[in-house]
Every structure is written in C-alpha cells, then in structure tokens.
Amino acid sequence: MFFRRELPEPPAGHTFDIARHGYASLLTGTRAISGDDAAMVRARDRFLPTGRYAPIRQAVACLAADAVSDQGTVLDIGCGTGYYLAGVLDQLPGARGLGLDTSVRALRSSARGHQRAAAASWDVFRPFPLADRVADVVLDVFAPRNPSEFHRVLRPTGRLIVVRPAQRHLAELRGQLPAMVTIDPAKEQRLHKALDPFFKAADTQRLEYVASLARQEALDLVGITPSARHLNRADLNGDDLLPDQATVSVLATAYRPR
Ligand SMILES: C[S@@+](CC[C@H](N)C(=O)[O-])C[C@H]1O[C@@H](n2cnc3c(N)ncnc32)[C@H](O)[C@@H]1O
C-alpha cells in the first residue's frame, strides 16, 4: 500500500486506510481537541496562493535546503493545506514529504498539494506513528509542537524548522480588531524552554515586510489566525475596519537535535 511503500513501516499489525480524499486516516479513538474547521481551511486555501506569505515559504525552503540533501524525508506537523511542505519539496527535487494534521478538511487540500507529499490525520500531542530517526526535516509552521517526538523522529543530522509570529506580526489588523488574539510577549521564552532540552538553534531568520491586502485577503488573513474563532461577522463587517496592508513579522529558526 502507498503508505507502506513511501514511508517507514507502520507499527507491527497496523494497516492504514487511505480516505477517498487522498489522505491516510490514522487518527482513531478520542478526537483531538484542536484543528482548523472548514471555514479556516477555505480561508487558508484562498489566502496562501495570493503569494502574500511567499517570502515565508521561501525562507523555510532555504533553511531546509541548507540542512539536507535532495533525497531527504520532510515531515510537516500541523501542515494545514500543505503550502510550506510543497515549497520545501519544490526546493528539494529528490525529497518526499508527509504532512500530519488533525483537520481532515486541511488534509484534503494537503493531499493534493504536491506529487511527492502524502498526508495523514494525526494529533501532534500523541506519539507519532513513525519510526525513530526517519526524518531529515521536521517543519512546524504556526502549529502546535511536541519537542520530544520531533527529536525522536529526526535523524541526528536533521533539522527542525519552526516558524512563529513576532511581536509586530499583523499589527495593523490587531490595531483595528481588538478581539484578535494578542501575541504573548513571553512566547519566545516559552519556546526556548520547551525546545532547549532537545534542540539547539542553528540559524534564525527574521522576516518583516508590509503586505498589501485586498478586502477579501484581509478577511482571509484574519480567518486563518487563531482569532478566527473569537471574532464574529459583526466584528468584520465595517468596510473601513479592515486595513489595506499588514506587517508580516515572523521568526524562522532551524534547530539541530542535541
Ligand atoms: C495556524 S495553522 C498552520 C497550518 C500550516 N502550517 C500553515 O502555516 O499554513 C495550525 C494547524 O495546526 C493544526 N492543528 C491544530 N491542533 C493540532 C493537533 N493537536 N495536532 C495536529 N495538528 C493540529 C490545525 O488544524 C492547523 O492546520
């Protein structure tokens, strides 16, 4: 079966179902408590192809290419629609990829995202359904993290690449929409504390630029953030409320396993 051929053997006795929509359905038992809903996935599917986040995808692909050869295996945890995984695979023509996410809506898009990428439902907070040291790159882009599992599945020569928002990220949107979730000033400290037992930072890139936004793009950008769940239509309805540009400010770090 596809999964057995393309990926490390599943645990003994397990078989994987490939859903009609192309992703492997591995998540059984208790439902994960988090994951993007259909509206968030539609917003992501519209927004990312606009190219407004293309510089982030480029930075991730460059960090991955600096770290591994063409032939690597790339995991994307909380892959969403698979936009960043596809960017890395384009940069590494001999590599293959696997995206994991709890959102089956996102996985449907991700499964179509790249010829060399597979997609499977999984909860990042559970032990991954993968053997030790199978991955050359683990991506975590704006997604939840499981540092000990990242470490277990990475080869010693591999890299974990983490992208997260910096303080000024989407400042104009936050300024106009007070209901948007703020960025915790202690976020970097918490990230360091969680990763430090397992990883050492090797290369950090700070990206900051202003992206112009058509109204639908601004709506979609709000719709793909964690704030989407806290805002209702009334928050967004005034035409003058949404800015026509936003600062994109993120940090992308490649970590070496300890
Ligand atoms: C902010 S989105 C980022 C998606 C993608 N990395 C991107 O940047 O386009 C966070 C993603 O993590 C997924 N997610 C949330 N909780 C998860 C969990 N417990 N296990 C796996 N994925 C999860 C969501 O469904 C969503 O696709």
Characterization of this structure:
The chain is an alpha/beta fold and 258 residues long. It has a domain at 17-165 and 184-206: Vaccinia Virus protein VP39 (Rossmann fold). It has 10 helices and 9 strands. It has a 9-stranded mixed beta sheet. Helix 5 (104-111) links the parallel strand 4 and strand 5 (117-121). Helix 2 (38-47) packs across helix 9 (215-223) and helix 3 packs across helix 4 (83-91). The longest helix is centred in the first third of the chain and has 14 residues, at 54-67. The protein is globular. Residues 1-10 have low confidence and may be disordered. It binds S-adenosylmethionine (SAM). The site of S-adenosylmethionine has 21 residues, from helix 4.
Provide keyphrases for this structure.
258 residues, 31% helix, single chain, nine-stranded mixed sheet, binds S-adenosylmethionine, alpha/beta, 10 helices
Order of strands across the main sheet: 1-2-5-4-3-6-7-9-8
- In total, the number of strands is 9
Our Rg estimate from Cα atoms comes to: 18 Å
Roughly what is the average pLDDT, rounded to an integer?
89
The DSSP helix count reads 10
Q: How does the overall form come out from the CA principal axes?
A: globular
Question: What's the SSE blueprint?
Answer:
Layout: H1 2-6, E1 17-18, E2 24-25, H2 38-47, H3 54-67, E3 73-77, H4 83-91, E4 96-101, H5 104-111, E5 117-121, E6 135-141, H6 147-153, E7 154-165, H7 171-176, H8 187-195, E8 199-212, H9 215-223, H10 233-236, E9 245-257
Helix pairs in contact: 2-9, 3-4
Bound molecules: S-adenosylmethionine (SAM).
